[in-house]
Amino acid sequence: MASKLHQLKAKANQVTQVVAEHGTAYYKKVLEENKQYIREPPMVEKCNLLSKQLFYTRLASIPHRYEAFWRELDYVKHLWRHRGDLKVEDVGIAALFGLECYGWFCVGEIVGRGFTIAGYRV
To answer: Signal: is it a keyword of this entry (predicted)?
Structure first.
């Protein structure tokens, strides 16, 4: 356990050195590349306005997303009614998607329990 702590501390020191050496240059480069998105002068009022615009824009998009959800659901119902016409590739893709969702659920549960399988700390 002490050796792992020593390794972690060494890695943290390495990362700190890299950030200290290259962090400022990277920060300036990112700001320069994305200067078209920066509002001048930076003011709290402008930030509040932009956050409200984002919130209400997302709120206004709910009806569109609601309709898209029902279109997708109708498509799935159509596929289920005509499941005899499905190709093996389509079934395979659906099965892989289902397995992926199940896998993420299981991984999420394990992470939520603190990376333990049965809920007990070892």
So the answer is: no
pTM of the full predicted structure? Answer: 0.46
Residue in 38, 55, 58, 36 with CA at minimum distance from that of residue 46? 38
Can you spell out the DSSP letters for 73-118? HHHHHHHHHTGGG--HHHHHHHHHHHHHHHHHHHHHHHHHTTS-SS
Q: How many residues does the chain have?
A: 122
Structure tokens at 112: 């939520």
Residue given tokens 């499905």 in the structure block: 86
What confidence tens digit (pLDDT) does each residue in 81-92 have? 998 888 899 889
Cα 20 to Cα 14: distance, rounded to the nearest angstrom: 10
Contact predicate 48/42, CB 8 Å: no
* Residue range 64-73, pLDDT digits in tens: 999 999 999 9
